[in-house]
Amino acid sequence: MMQMSLEFIRIVLVETTHPGNIGASARAMKTMGFSRLHLVKPKLFPNAEATARAAGADDILANVQVHQSLSEAVNDCVLVIGTSARVRNISCPILSPDRVNTEILECVRSESQVAIVFGRESSGLSNEELDVCNKMTMIPTSDDFSSLNLASAVQLICYELFKFSKANNRDDQKLIDKSETITNEELNKFYEHLQQCLIEINYLDPEKPRKLMRRLKQLFNRSALDQNEYNILRGILSAVQEKVRQK
Q: What is the tens place of the pLDDT at every residue in 131-185?
């Protein structure tokens, strides 16, 4: 049995302007079981307002590591995930928060270091800082108002990871199988292939489908195919089609 260890995950705040946001972020982290806070060139730290807003998370502030650059703050990390409030023209892939959890788990189970990076209150991370990141994530928000307070953003990301760590106390093989689940696009390609094959063997009449494909889709949706099963089924369909066409 294995469970995600939060000790291998650090929260990195870049050039935070308001010391109160540092303290509030520390408090948010502690409520979710995180303890490692790194700061890159904070404007004011240490500071009494940071301590006041921490409200009991003084131990996190006492162990803060301060760096002069983001590269320095994450140089020993295997995975660096940047956060952003908007889509940008960047090379690193954008992952949903739940997908980020799986990526992080792959690292921490081998005791590798992971960093989750949050940018400035006013402008977020620069493009150069995003270039330091391997992956990027965005917190879904309303189209009408997408602005999130820094500490709130930290709280949400830490909550998702905390919840995931509690829910995934299972063996490694199940986690690997989950990570190999096929995409919806692949599943739709399989359904198209299956329908064409059934037509070719005269099992499905496209003029009188009798909801056959809908029922088959419900069947395979329940089974949650992994990548190996998907490849096997596509191979079987291709082999059937080849035999039919030879005749």
A: 788 788 988 888 888 778 999 999 999 999 998 888 765 544 444 444 455 665 7
Per the rule left: phi > 0, alpha: psi between -120 and 50, beta: everything else, 23 is alpha
- Encoded amino acid at 65, one letter: Q
Alpha-carbon gap, residue 64 to 84, rounded angstroms: 23
Cα separation, 160 vs 138, whole angstroms: 13
Please write the tens of the pLDDT for every residue from 199-238. 989 898 888 887 888 788 767 766 667 788 889 999 999 9
Listed by start position, the domains of the chain span 6-171, 180-246
Residue type, 214: R
How far, CA to CA in Å, does 34 sit from each of 82, 137, 146, 153, 189?
17, 19, 25, 14, 42
Q: How far is CA 139 from CA 25, 213, 230, in A?
A: 16, 36, 31
Cβ-contact 126, 118 below 8 angstroms: no
Give alpha helix (H) positions in the chain: 19-31, 48-54, 58-62, 70-73, 97-108, 127-132, 150-167, 172-179, 184-200, 212-223, 227-246
Contact 241, 192 (CB under 8 A): no
As a whole number of angstroms, the distance between CA 207 and CA 202 comes to: 12
Region 180-246: CATH code = 1.10.8.590
- Burial class of residue 45 in the structure, from the number of CB atoms within 10 Å of its CB (0-12 exposed, 13-18 middle, 19+ buried): middle
| CATH, domain range 6-171 | 3.40.1280.10
Whole-number Å distance between alpha carbons of 53 and 192:
56
